[in-house]
Amino acid sequence: MSGVARIVIETRPGETRAAVLDQAGEPIEFRIERETSRSRVGALCLGRVKTVRADIGAAFVDIGAGQDGFLNLKSADRDTLGTNVSEGAAVLVQVTRDAAAGKGPALSTGIDLVGAALVLTPGKPGLGLSGRISDDGTRARLKSLFADRDVSAAGVVIRTDAAAMSDNDILAETARLDARWQVVRDRAAASDAPACLIAAPGLAERLVSRYAGPSLAEILVDDAEAAKQLELHVAETLGAVCPAPVMTKGGETAFTAADLEDAFDAALSPHVMLPGGGGLIVTETPAMTTVDVNAGRAAAGNPERLALETNLAAAGAIAHQLRLRGIGGLIAVDFMKMREDRNRQRVLAALGTAFRGDPDNPRAGAFSRFGLVDVVRQRCAPVLAHDIDE
After folding, report:
1. How far apart are the first and last CA of the chain?
2. Residue 1 reports pLDDT greater than 50
3. What is the rounded CA–CA span in Å between residue 46 and residue 288?
4. Residue 182 burial by CB count (10 A; 0-12/13-18/19+): exposed, middle or buried?
5. CA 92 – CA 196 distance, rounded (Å)
6. What is the DSSP letter of 320?
């Protein structure tokens, strides 16, 4: 994912903290993962179908996780190995969402093996190309690399960062992903369900896989064992397109070495200052998040202009804070009231521009009659503040 220059990994007893930094050295994401609540997203499992519910188009599958996983059957009635999803059958599934609020983990029979340049999609045929690659010559070059490949059984999606990578690096990654898929197939054939075939990557591995590419210049780590695991992950999955982890010096923690402690603390505060004196109040609940935009100063002069200037500044800050804090789901934004429709449209346009580059695809609706704007953002990880409160 272009734009990410540095990933910082700090390991504490029972806990990992991570930060993703942009080209200017500013944090754009903070994440925490505890050993007691480690994510299973991405794990590949040979599950045993316990129940098929035709009335809701779903199956409940034992993957050995304590809670049965929920498999939506509307998109597929068999797994990538060709097994019908029927009661008692052993099926190959991937965890797509962790268990939460009494619900088991969400599962899919569509498998995604992710690299820096490509995603191998066994069971989902075809050649896909990122829409963010706009240059016609580059698109033609990338497609030509797979002209002789049969993608009818295992498809390939070419990611955005492939545009800046060499043909040799892309082809080398293709070979690594093919080998990884063969390992999965071999383990599935030799295992009795339920069984974990490929464990879910840890927080560090997930972030490195997500943001590996030409722009990523450094991975800073403060734990030798974590560095060793990352080196193995890079070698097996990402190859030369990803830098080797670098250890901090003098026993410094990674966040201290990268001067991130103050920024991390600020990301936990409900109050966010805006340029010019305005501010945001971010309130998070399990159901939704609200963002209140305030001028923070006497409303002298033209109230409409003050509201417009404050709201335009808030648009960029809101996009940054949602990504920084890992906020997903439904977000209700209470902008300062504006009378003129053209000003409301300017604010919506600024919000849309600020959302570009966020891999979790935030989208904003229109202003409601009460001046609220609803935003939805993919929920891919626990909210930062919720992790701290656990």
Report:
1. 30
2. no
3. 34
4. exposed
5. 10
6. H
Q: Which residue matches tokens 């965890």?
A: 95
Return the structure tokens found at 226.
């974590």
Contact 348, 371 (CB under 8 A): no
Per-residue tokens: 229: 């695991």
Confidence (pTM):
0.83
Q: Count the neighbouring beta carbons within 10 Å of the beta carbon of residue 186.
A: 11
How far is residue 212's CA from residue 116's CA, in Å, rounded to a whole number?
A: 5
Q: How far apart are CA 65 and CA 244, in angstroms?
A: 33
Is residue 67 within 8 Å of residue 99, measured between CB atoms? yes
145 CB-side CA count, 13 A: 26
- Chain centroid to Cα 68, Å, comes to 24
Q: What are phi and psi of 26, to 5 degrees?
A: -95, 140
pLDDT tens track for 323-352: 999 999 999 999 999 999 999 999 999 999
125 preceded by cis ω (within 30°)?
A: no
- Position 389 pLDDT exceeds 80: no
pLDDT at 388: 53
Question: Distance (Å, rounded) from C-alpha 290 to C-alpha 293?
Answer: 10
Question: In which element (H, E) is residue 344 found?
Answer: helix 341-355
Residue 34 identity (one-letter amino acid): R
Residues found in the chain: 390
Cα-flanking dihedrals φ and ψ of residue 367, to 5°? -65, 135
CA atoms within 13 A on the CB side of 325: 28
Tell me which H or E stretch contains 154. Answer: strand 154-158
Q: Which residues of 309-338 are buried (b: 16+ CB within 10 A; e: fewer)?
A: bbbbbbbbbbbbbbbbbbbbbebebbbbeb
* Integer Cα distance of 36 and 10 in angstroms: 17
pLDDT digits (tens, 9 = 90+) for 19-37: 999 999 999 999 999 887 7
Q: Which residue has tokens 């010096």?
A: 249
| Amino acid identity at 215 | S
